[in-house]
Design goal:
Length: about 240
């Protein structure tokens, strides 16, 4: 049908003409959507503030040839202002939506949408350290996309752990026989933190030391960027803050 309705997260926006914007959104049922929101940059716009990055909205769209057209928008989650007010939350949110944009060039799933919404909600409320929310999101969305890292057995030969070498190119932990020379090593405590981030064990995550948090973040960033096959530009700003 030419008109449809869905829930969507606004990933990014671009100016179009004097008053319009092109929106890139991740929706619950229709995957990634590119649409024009007409007149939203005017002060008289009724729903311009509902269609900013990190906002979640119930949108009605008209299906166009190349770009759809937003006809209505009702707010479901006003997370943008609370995220933008804190630099660590803002940089983490940017890395999350950039990752979602990259991953969902193919057809997405409702689980990926819900994971992103949950992550943005947690950031806006300051429920946990922003970097930890980002790391958990990256690990879990990679797993939903079929790239779950091996955090126990060897990713290459299946030999049971414990192992200490983590090689992103090989899929996670690898045994001594499979690890290339010079492979980076990860401490047992940082590895336990990675497992907690993937499982959403926030009691363990929140109690982690700054050293383990930094080590886990570096490992997650390397793994995610390898499988996305290009860098996540927003991560540069996340890491410039230092451990959180």
């Amino acid at each position: 049908m030419p008109t449809y309705r869905d829930e969507a997260v606004v990933l990014r926006t671009h100016k179009l003409g004097e008053a319009d914007r092109i929106l890139t959104m991740l929706s619950r049922r229709h995957g990634k959507i590119r649409a024009v929101a007409k007149g939203v940059r005017r002060t008289s716009s009724k729903f311009g503030a509902r269609l900013e990055p990190f906002m979640v909205a119930d949108v009605q769209l008209y299906q166009g040839r190349t770009l759809d057209i937003v006809q209505q928008a009702e707010s479901l989650g006003s997370y943008g202002s609370d995220i933008a007010a804190h630099y660590d939350r803002f940089t983490a949110a940017n890395a999350m939506v950039e990752t979602a944009d990259r991953l969902n060039e193919a057809e997405s799933t409702p689980e990926q949408y819900l994971l992103l919404v949950g992550g943005l909600r947690a950031l806006s409320r300051g429920e946990h350290a922003a970097r930890s929310i980002l790391d958990s999101y990256l690990l879990r969305v990679m797993a939903l996309s079929g790239w779950a890292p091996s955090l126990d057995d060897c990713a290459r030969c299946g030999a049971p752990g414990p192992h200490t070498a983590f090689v992103a190119q090989l899929g996670g932990l690898v045994c001594g026989n499979c690890a290339p020379a010079g492979s980076p090593r990860i401490a047992a405590s940082a590895l336990e933190l990675l497992r907690a981030l993937l499982a959403g064990d926030w009691e363990l995550v929140d109690a982690a030391s700054p050293a383990d948090t930094a080590a886990a973040s570096g490992t997650v960033a390397a793994y995610a960027q390898y499988h996305l096959e290009r860098g996540i530009r927003s991560l540069e700003h996340v890491f410039s803050e230092g451990p959180r």
